[in-house]
Amino acid sequence: LFGLLRLLNVGVIGWLYFVSFLFGFFDTSIIMPTITVIEHSDEKKRLRNSNINFAIVLLTGVIGYFGAGVLGKSLGIFPTLVLSMILALVSIAPVFAFPNVKVSKKRKKKQSLTRTQRTMLIYYLLSGALVSLAAGVFINFGNVIFYDLFKFSTLAITTVLAVSQLSTAATSLFSHKLTAKYGYKLTLFLIYLGVTLLIFMMPLFTLNSFVFSVAYVLRYVLINISTPMYMVFCLSYLPKASLATYSGLSYFLNNVMRASSAQLFASLSKSGVTDYNKLFFVSGFFYLSNTLITLLAFYLMYKLSQNETTSSKELKKEENVREGRTYQRRYYFTYRRSKRTKNTKVSVHFHNTRLSRGRFNSGK
């Protein structure tokens, strides 16, 4: 609705800022399906279900890209934008199919995070912000890059973007098998490292439009299939009751970084000419920072998990020792009648509950 209102008075700057703010405010609801999938899926199917949801979003985006290219050329840009906002209103239809669930008003006690959880939360926020800052230039200005470097038409640009999303959708359906075989940590690290190398090599790829397009698609696929992995991996460590809060905070930081990337692009486009070599270097620097932070976070988590395992073992050992000392002090005796003779004899036997030598079984 606010996206449609934003198109009505484009010339009024104040109105445009106000409605755009409301549009972005309500657009944050897109994180809820992912959180719902994570909360209601078991550990084995969590990533697979998230990838299915992610693939559906990308496939519909492919249709949108092709539709935008065709309709934009035949109808014009403004009518196509109005039509897209009207179609977006259809997205509220599935909401009416949701069951009417009453939310309990009882407030649970505030949960304190462990060191591992705090490390994961910091990594979740920082990594998402760095990737958003690095990728924001390509996501927001991908069409500008293709036009400036190679003079691509609108149809050609939307075709490249559509192929990027279609490839990502197809790949994301099978990416959970990578984590099942190699683990989340190794898979994420290798993906981030591969994207970093691609970005630093982009100045070489600009010599050929086809090679650059292939590299763009590959970067798009890698960084986007890592998003469900990264979210499922990080949020699995955090308390379920706070997933929406942490996801909302991460989404806020990511959008702030995307806005900063727009300013970065503008600062590198002085006098209407963009220094793309410098742009690729700056973006690669942020990707490299994210890769190093990922490696550092995984190392810290490994050390913290070792310390927590050692502490739990020592605590359990101390509890066993205390129980043993208390248990050793308890002695019991029984008696039985001897049936060998007519005389009644009483045999008294002292039983120590431990095999260790005590007062009555010292062996003397």
UniProtKB/TrEMBL annotation:
**Matches recorded under Pfam families:** MFS_1
* Transmembrane residue ranges: 12-38, 50-71, 77-101, 121-146, 152-174, 186-205, 217-238, 279-302
Q: Which UniProt keywords apply?
A: Membrane, Transmembrane, Transmembrane helix
Residues spanning the signal sequence:
none
Q: Which residues form a coiled coil?
A: none
| Keyword Transmembrane helix belongs to the record | yes
Q: Name one GO molecular function term.
A: transmembrane transporter activity
The entry's protein name is MFS transporter
* Native source species: Fervidobacterium pennivorans
